[in-house]
Design brief:
This protein is mainly beta and 398 residues long. Helices cover 8% and strands 36% of the residues. It has three helices and 29 strands. It has a five-stranded antiparallel beta sheet, with no helix packed on it. Helix 1 runs antiparallel to helix 3. The longest helix is centred in the last third of the chain and has 13 residues. It is globular and about 60 Å long. The two termini are 30 Å apart.
Length: 398
C-alpha cells in the first residue's frame, strides 16, 4: 500500500488571482489503483470518503468488479459490469451500465440486448434495471456517465449520449421506481457535440435553477437550463485541459466548475486540475500536474465534489495513477452550522432569521453558509426543519 500524506499541501498549489480568501489543501493521496488494468478502469468517482471504480476486466483475467478504495487502500469489492461507466445519483445510489454500446433501434427489436441502466442502493444492496426505451435510444458507443438527477431507485433522470458528433442527447426518466417511458425521449440541442466520452451532469446553480452541464472533452462545455433543453450557454473556462472529468458545484453563494487543468507548457492528458467560478476572468485555484507525460491513454482525469456548510470535499481519480482527496474552505473563521444570525450559538433566533430570509429574501443578519443546515448546497425549507430538529434533539443529521 502506497499511502502518501501531505505535510505542506500548499507547496503544490497555485492559487488564482481571484482566490477571494479560499484555501485548498490536500487531505490524502493513494496510488494503489495504479496496479489496476487501465483499459478496464477508465471511470471512477468519490463519495463519503471512498472511491468507486468499475473494472470491466478487459484483459480477460477475471470477472468484472467494482472496487471501493479509501485512504488506506482497498476497502471492499462488488460485482462489476460490462461498461466501465460508473457514477452516483443525488441519493448516493451507484449507477452503472450493463452494455458497452447501444444497438440501433428497429421495429423488430424494440429492446436491444443490454441497452440498460442499473441502479444499486448501497445501503440495502437492492438493485433495479431500467432498459432504455425506443424514444430515448441512440446507436453507437457510450463510454461514460455523468451525474443524474434525483433518486433513481424512486424518481429521477439519467442523461447520456453516444458518439458520432451528435447534437442529440437522451433523457431516461424514472417515476415511482419504474421506467417512465412517457418522459424518456431525445433532445436536440445545436450547441452540443457528442463523442463516445461525453458526460452530462445535472446540478442546481447558485440561483436555485436546475441545469445540465454538457461536457465533451475537446469542445466548450454547455450549461443547459432544464426549462429550455434546446438552449444554453457555451462556457469559456481558463486553462481547460482536453481530458474528461468536469463537475459543477455551488459554494459560498458562487457557482464553480471543477475540471482538468493544462498549463501552456503541459502536454495533453496529464493530471492537474483547476477550480473556476463561472464568469470570473481568473481561476479560483489551480493544482498543477505532477507528471510530465500522460499515464493513461483514455483522456481521463475524473473530478467530483461534495459540498457542506464549511467547505467542499474534492475527489480526484486519475486512472493508472492515483486517487486523492482535497478540501476547499474559506480562509478565515468558519461558519458554525445553524448559526444563521452569527451570534456564536444555535437557537430560536437563527430559525427566525432563516424564515425571514426565505419569506422576504433578506434578514437582519444572515450567514448563507451556516443556513445550509441540511448540507444540500442550497438554502430552503429543509434547512428550517433541520435546525428545529437540532434545537429539539441536540444532534445534527449525518
Amino acid at each position: 500500500m502506497k499511502k502518501l500524506l501531505l505535510i505542506a499541501a500548499m507547496a503544490a498549489l497555485a492559487l488564482g488571482a481571484n482566490a477571494d480568501g479560499y484555501k485548498l489543501e490536500q487531505v490524502w493521496k493513494n496510488t494503489d489503483v495504479a496496479s489496476l488494468y487501465m483499459a478496464g478502469v477508465r471511470q471512477g468517482f468519490g463519495m463519503d470518503g471512498l472511491f468507486y471504480i468499475n473494472d470491466t476486466q478487459w484483459n480477460g483475467e477475471g470477472e468484472s468488479t467494482i472496487y471501493i478504495y479509501g485512504e488506506d487502500g482497498l476497502v471492499a469489492t462488488m460485482p462489476g459490469y460490462a461498461n466501465s461507466a460508473i457514477t452516483r445519483d443525488e441519493a448516493g445510489n451507484l449507477v452503472v451500465m450493463d452494455n458497452t454500446g447501444f444497438a440501433a433501434h428497429t421495429n423488430d427489436d424494440p429492446w436491444p440486448l443490454g441497452a440498460s441502466i442499473r441502479v444499486i442502493d448501497l445501503n440495502t444492496s437492492e438493485s433495479k434495471e431500467y432498459q432504455i426505451p425506443p424514444d430515448a435510444l441512440l446507436s453507437g458507443r457510450c463510454d461514460f456517465l455523468g451525474f443524474p438527477k434525483g433518486n433513481l431507485m424512486e424518481d429521477g433522470e439519467v442523461y447520456l449520449t453516444s458518439g458520432n458528433g451528435r447534437t442529440v442527447f437522451s433523457i431516461i426518466a424514472v417515476a415511482g421506481g419504474e421506467l417512465d417511458t412517457d418522459n424518456s425521449y431525445h433532445v436536440d440541442n445545436e450547441l452540443t457535440y457528442s463523442t463516445t466520452s461525453t458526460v452530462i451532469n445535472f446540478y442546481t446553480d447558485a440561483n436555485g435553477d436546475e441545469n445540465l452541464l454538457y461536457v465533451t472533452r475537446n469542445s466548450p462545455m454547455v450549461k443547459i437550463p432544464m426549462d429550455d433543453l434546446s438552449g444554453g450557454t457555451k462556457l469559456t473556462l481558463p486553462f481547460r485541459g482536453p481530458s474528461n472529468g468536469a463537475f459543477p458545484f455551488v459554494f459560498d453563494g458562487k457557482e464553480f466548475i471543477l475540471y482538468p487543468y493544462k498549463a501552456t507548457t503541459d502536454v495533453n492528458y496529464v493530471d492537474g486540475f483547476i477550480i473556476s467560478e463561472i464568469g470570473a476572468e481568473e481561476p479560483t485555484a489551480i493544482v498543477p500536474a505532477t507528471i510530465t507525460a500522460p499515464i493513461n491513454g483514455y483522456q481521463c482525469n475524473w473530478l467530483n465534489a461534495e459540498v457542506d456548510a464549511n467547505g467542499v470535499t474534492i475527489y480526484h481519480y486519475y486512472p493508472g495513477g492515483y486517487i486523492e482527496v482535497w478540501r476547499m474552505t474559506k480562509d478565515g473563521p468558519q461558519a458554525m452550522r445553524g448559526d444563521v444570525d452569527m451570534d456564536g450559538n444555535v437557537g430560536i433566533g437563527d430559525v427566525t432569521n432563516l424564515i425571514d430570509y426565505l419569506l422576504n429574501g433578506t434578514a437582519p443578519v444572515f450567514d448563507a453558509v451556516a443556513a445550509d443546515c441540511d448540507l444540500d448546497g442550497n438554502v430552503g425549507i429543509g434547512d428550517v426543519t433541520t435546525i428545529i430538529d437540532f434545537i429539539l434533539n441536540g444532534v445534527w443529521p449525518s
